[in-house]
Amino acid sequence: MKWQQIENDWRGFKPQVLAKWSKLTDEQLNAIAGKRDKLAAKVCEVYALNKDETEKQIKSFEDLAKQPEGVKETMR
Length: 76
Known about the structure:
By secondary structure, the protein is mostly helical. The chain has helices spanning about 5-10, 10-20, 25-30, 35-45, 50-65.
């Protein structure tokens, strides 16, 4: 999946993000607003990970993320 899809439907993807990174708060997720760099920074901070590990986790999430139900894929 392309990150642009995740960013465009951030509200729909938030449950999947929260399932992956459960320490993130709803307030933090709202502030991230689908921006990949903001997610990376917050995951680094909250989970005390280095940039390489954070990037691996985000890339894995991006590859495995599923389109939320009721949303048509339009950007493939």
